[in-house]
Queue: 3 jobs
Job 1
Amino acid sequence: MPRFTRLAIIACAAFSFAAHAQLHSGDIILHTDEGRILTGIGNPGAGTFEERQIFTAILGTSFPNFTSDPGFDCLPGTFPVPSANGFNVLDALWHWDGETFVPTAGENMRISLGPANVTTSDGFVAGFTLNVASNGSWHRHYSFFLQQGAAPAIADGVYLLQLEIYNTGGALEPTEPIYMLFNQNASASDVDDAAAWVQANFIDEPGIPGDLNGDGVVDFADLSIVLSQFGMEGDDLDGDANGDGVVDFTDLSIVLSNFGTGL
């Protein structure tokens, strides 16, 4: 067989493999479009990619309070070479109380891979980067470990972790916020209700939690709204940050935990 023909066959086979590469089932799929990193499910190479921002995980299936699923995966050629992908924690860890997300009772989330690790705090926490493979792919499974805080025990329920993924190549915008719901001995209905709340409050009506006057920044004006209505109950209260019908310490905490942030 002539050398040119052999090379052509190899090239076609390589292209076919890349176009139909198998992605790991259950992972969060990364894709790029118009200069932005997208998250979702499905295979972009097969035309089945569906953009999503909410993902669920179950803690404790292998070790207590721990999971390494879902991971992140993508097709070869998704990211520039050389470069690295990293993550940032966008907010504190929150806990579902059956109606809304509230501050945890001291629990936090440790995120690690090998020796690299970070732990959630009261707000934004910079993560760490991991190199993209030589073929432009990136398949990683972080370890997520729910840690006990000052509370005497870890509370069961649904925990919300907000992340973004970015690339160091300089040509891609980071992902939209990724909302990861961790099931710590919670019911399926609780997880569904928490996911619906995130969809309604963070995605369908995008904005900054605590931005009560809608000016794109959480500042003294928003704090003043909460304090002026503190203790009031009713519908459509401007100071009711979590929409539960009462202006209380939960609403104050939402404003204070996001104080100073802006679009």
Job 2
Amino acid sequence: MVVISNPFAVADEIKIIHSLFDEGLSLFHIRKPDFSELEMAQFIHQIKLEFRDQIVLHHHHKLAADFGINRFHFSETERNNNTDFPVRFQKPCRSNSTSTHSIEDFNSIEHYFDYAFLSPVFKSISKENYLPKMNLFEALKSRKNHKTKIIALGGITSENIQKTLENGFDDFALLGTVWNNENPVKQFKLCQTIALSY
């Protein structure tokens, strides 16, 4: 199970992140698109050393070496506009992920991506008017790429996790259902319990 950071500042954010890790969070994606390199460095610096290996960096990848981070995420735009991924991935790297928005796009991903988000599966909680353009459960029937794990993103809640996993997704990512909740850690634990019982 993956949790993606809120793109905007959250009260007690670092404390919540530490609590999520303490409760068994596997991977935490830091997606702060408006952060400068300095702001990103300051943010990462607050996260305990013991959790750095579970951080996935979306932006300012060159900071990774300074913080012992070896997991990277690339947006769809970055993936489509760069031809040097094989060169980049020769560097010490534990895993790479990317974003997709159609099963055709997912099927075309190169083998050096370990997993990819496919979104939105449901109406987004964090993005206004961000709706599925197709039934992704139906679309998954034409999945041809089985080397890359497919991670459901967009509108994932405790109410639809089981349905999501039953319909072919390998795992899921949480954003709005955690950060838009008044008790993010409790909500995470609920989703975690459902996933573990599947």
Job 3
Amino acid sequence: MSTDTGTLAQRLGAHLGDKIAAVHEWRGETIIDVVPENWLAVGQQLRDAAEFRFEQLIDLCGVDYLGYGQVEWDTADVTSTGFSRGVEGEAAGRFDWAHRPRTGAGHKRFAAIVQLTSIAHNARVRLRCHAPDDALPVIPSLVPLWPAANWFEREAFDLFGIVFEGHPDLRRLLTDYGFVGHPFRKDFPLIGNVEVRFDEKLGRVIYEPVTSVVPRVTVPRVLRDDSDLMQARAEAADKWREN
């Protein structure tokens, strides 16, 4: 990629300069934060610059940071029944509207996350762009740079309500015609707003309030580095060496 011995993050920071808000590495991954007005310019440099050549967009998704950092899960302490099971009702979709979660300090609510690959240099980078307006989140479309972004952006628009300015055909992709709301937003009810069924007497599909679905929260997988897991890994490694 370059004769420079610096890390990818350091080279990206030096090359892009004040066009980016931040660049850092976490768990072996390189992440670049970009403001909307530089979104296309940064993307084009990453794609076209000979020392980077991130010619392939492999994924784009939306993120809702509502309630970021305000968790109802306790992953530090455990009991005989395991971790705290989110029973406080603070999670998005299970709260009283007056006490709904708020956007965390220092974060805009909606963002687009892009994964880029450089086949030429065997490298990957992640881009993140926060929409400046929470009420109407708008981010420039990357379709002019990577046509593969087309359906990814439609999906993010459908599920999160992020508007990709300049997209050639920004329509819903996964939800039904006439669907109200954006189901991956954290303030969208877990059981939805309405349910659909075919009424034999009326001979048509009807919409009515949800009555047949009960809200349910599953246990997420948590990244932990406690002594029990470290001991288990050590014992597994000893057993493997013995065999």
